[in-house]
Amino acid sequence: MSDFLQTPLQYLKGVGPRRAADFQRIGLATVEDLVYRFPLRYEDRGHLQPISTLKEGQEVAVAGRIQSSRLRTTRRPGFKIFEALVGDDSGSIRAVWMNQSFLHDILKPRLNVVLFGTVEARPGLQLTNPEYEIIEAGEGEAGEAVTIHTGRIVPVYEKAGAMTPKMQRRLVYEVLARVPDELEDPLPSDIRERLCLPPRREALLEAHFPVPGTSIDLLNQFRTPAQIRLIVEEFFLFQLGLLMRRRSTARESKPAVVHVDDRIRESARKILPFRLTEGQRAALKEIVDDMQQPAPMNRLLQGDVGAGKTIVALLAALVAMENGLQVAFMAPTEILAEQHYLSLRKLLEKSRFHVELLTGATAGLRRRDLLARLAAGDVHLIVGTHALVQGTVTFRSLGLAVIDEQHRFGVVQRASLRSKGLRPDVLVMTATPIPRTLALTAYGDLDVSVMRDMPPGRRAIATTVKPESRREEIYRLVKGELDAGRQAYVVYPLIEESEKVDLKAATEMADHLAQDIFPEYRVALLHGRMKQDAKDRVMRAFASGEIQVLVSTTVIEVGIDVANASIMVIEHAERFGLSQLHQLRGRVGRGSHQSHCILLYQYPISVPGKERLKALAATNDGFEIAERDLQLRGPGDFFGTRQSGLPTLRTGDLLRDHSLMERAREEAKSYLASNAMSPAVLESLRQTWPARFGLMDVG
Ligand code: ADP
Ligand code: MG
Questions:
Q1: Is the Cβ–Cβ distance between 150 and 112 less than 8 Å?
Q2: pTM for the full model?
Q3: Which position has the higher pLDDT, 172 or 392?
Q4: Alpha helix (H) ranges present in 47-164?
Q5: pLDDT at position 199, please?
């Protein structure tokens, strides 16, 4: 029935392989893709204006008859101008098209046309390169002319290669005329009725070719019932898929359900070096509650840099270990794994649990011995990189996997655990604050705990924004910190297209700082092209204080903890995203000293660019910054990659349509609970869902 919607665009009249490839490039392969893509905007060409009333500067639609036409040569060889005089009952106006000689054979005298364009005065009034449409009388009902491009509200589409907006408008019009009357509707009718939304076919027609009288403002805000209906349809299916995915994990059972008693509480108290903050306590409770459920936990712990996520994870680990289960603690890099290992081992010193580190450097006999002890259950807590669960490592009874600082890969890790037949509780931790607006979508199948408070006594990082020309003064500030025994970061952005140039700039800067500016201190360079062990060597030397100034082109590894580093200079700060700057800044302010972050910018900088930097200087609250960043950059850029867990959407927009997403989620929830949908339909959704929304199937 809806087979027509699945027709490849290539097979449509007037498309063919070349134009189909143009469509493919913007992600449109089938008729369904085409009709489910909203126009960029709508133009009201519905009000035909009498020609005599036209004024310079107006954007107008006029209807009239071609009175005369001619092709004019110009002084530029080969460049011709086509002119037509178009008149209605009230008067006439000249229409001019540059370099489109072929129009001479199309727009012939005596034809009726509708033109749409801007009125210019040169000095007589004229329309330059207007959109045109020839009206053949008697086309429509009651002898009325049917127009597609003019005389109505028209959709304006994104250009697709050689397919102009006008060509697409005609194509969409023709395709919509062929959409069958009886169209299967994935949006249940009761939801549709509850929300007062039109059926599918009507919505498609209205979203592209609105009936006269539709509000142009609502259209351009994508808020007509037809548009809302298509957005809700997409969100509903998306949420339904998410909920089903969740439901299927909830049915699995993990190796052992955890119990908590006074003995365990006492053991936790013993290792705790400080009082937990409110946020830590609340998060821990949510985590431990999950661990006591039969289904595996899938929880994301969000907390800004320095919020104290590690101790929360360790306490959860302790609960697992007290229950006779093993814990894997994974960090994104070896050096971070080492740091975790050192601090976790210290915290667990007084306990009976064995902590070990497994990295690429663990080799030979030691590795074999370690793997054997892990398999036997003699190692309780193993710290390593994300490779930990991917290799040949076997556990006796893995109860909890903690994945630190890499929410993006959390999904992958979970999948790889599953593929090994393991169903532990999973705790993913991230310092990237996810705006509330996105959490629902990005982590729809994860539970989220958020810690918004900070451990006491933390001093806010003093952030200042300076033009690059004030460099001298900044160096004096850095030198002051170095003289006081502190350390400094100097960060360079790395933009892929100019990677080489940037690297050169960073290298020269490192030399310059070492030789001319801070000759009495040690300066080292860290960049993305270095081998991992070379990077690790530099990081270690910085961590131990052997190096005092670290010049880095890479984002200094997330989570790296050098408490003595108290100042960071970020070059070309205008090139970074806000969240990224915030993450970078989090590398300082980790000790008891007052820390500084200096954002250096270069001219030319836009006013909004500078505003952005000032916004960062004004707050240390990562969540506030994330919301701001999201508003500025949009969801796609906010996360950067598809791995982010954000769906590919065709009608909906996560920012614009956030409240519709919430509504769709509620509807999907109650729908699933009501068991109204046939198992076959659910199954087919389950299968097509990951591809449709461009998400990984982890179930
Ligand atoms: P992040 O959330 O960035 O991973 P960490 O877990 O590394 O933060 O914690 C940052 C620092 O704060 C660590 O030195 C840790 O010991 C300390 N810390 C964490 N929680 C508290 C607390 N409740 N009271 C005092 N210090 C704390
Ligand atoms: Mg951390």
A1: no
A2: 0.68
A3: 172
A4: none
A5: 94
Q: What is the mean pLDDT of the chain?
A: 86
Ligand located closest to 331 CA: 2
d(CA 660, CA 653): 10
Task: Give nearest CA residue, ligand 1 atom 17.
Answer: 308
Question: Which of 310, 344, 556 has most ligand 1 atoms within 8 Å of its beta carbon, as the pocket-test mutant?
Answer: 310
Ligand 2 geometric centre to CA of 331 (Å): 9
- Among protein residues, the one with the nearest Cα to ligand 1's atom 24 is 455
Q: Which of 32, 95, 89, 25 is nearest to 60 (CA)?
A: 95
Residues 168, 170, 175, 181, CA torsion sign? positive
pLDDT digits (tens, 9 = 90+) for 24-80: 988 899 999 999 999 998 988 888 889 999 999 998 889 899 999 999 888 888 889
Q: What is the pLDDT of residue 412?
A: 61
| 403 φ, ψ (degrees, to nearest 5) | -115, 110
C-alpha to C-alpha distance for 64 and 111, rounded to whole angstroms: 8
In this prediction, residue 368 has a pLDDT band, given cuts at 50, 70 and 90, of very high
Ligand 1 pocket, Cβ-based, cut-off 6 angstroms: 274-277, 280, 303, 305-311, 431, 455, 561
Structure tokens of 523? 């300066």
Distance between CA atoms of residues 274 and 398, nearest Å: 28
Sequence letter at residue 379: V
The ligand minimizing its distance to the Cα of 283 is 1
| Residue 81, amino acid | I
